[in-house]
Amino acid sequence: MLKRVGLSALLFVLVAVHPAAAGPVQAGIAAYNHQDYQAAARLLLPLAQHGNPVAQTYVGFMFHNGRGLPQNYVAAADWYRRASEQGVPVAQFNLGLLYDKGMGVPQDYVLAYKWLNIATAQATRAERDYWVRIRDAVGTKLSLIQRTAGQDLASEWFYARRPPGIH
Known about the structure:
By secondary structure, this protein is an all-alpha fold. The protein contains 9 helices and no strands.
């Protein structure tokens, strides 16, 4: 379910973030959706290396799950981080999950909460309930001081990079 929600959200982000690059990215996404993971990797990896946040998210997902690229949680976290810094909610959510589980990054519940909180703030209607449950579950692992620190980190990040239309 999470993968389906994440991939559908990526299709939406594709048009919103980089409409001019939609052709090559769309071809990579189509290859991925047709389970031609090697072709998807060939198409998306160069785009990710050139800074396309949607391609970066897909490449992170491919490293995370070992589809078209060897499973490598460190690489997945790196690509998710790059896309997260550019504001892709699905990448932010997945980066938060990696911090929660300590996969490819040191386990850090405060950073997990930060990224999950940022992602949840931008979630689509279809994602929101699930993402809130996950964020809140991670929050139960935190003391009040830690939860406040995670909220402060999320607020600092969010307000420094406000999405359009949010003042």
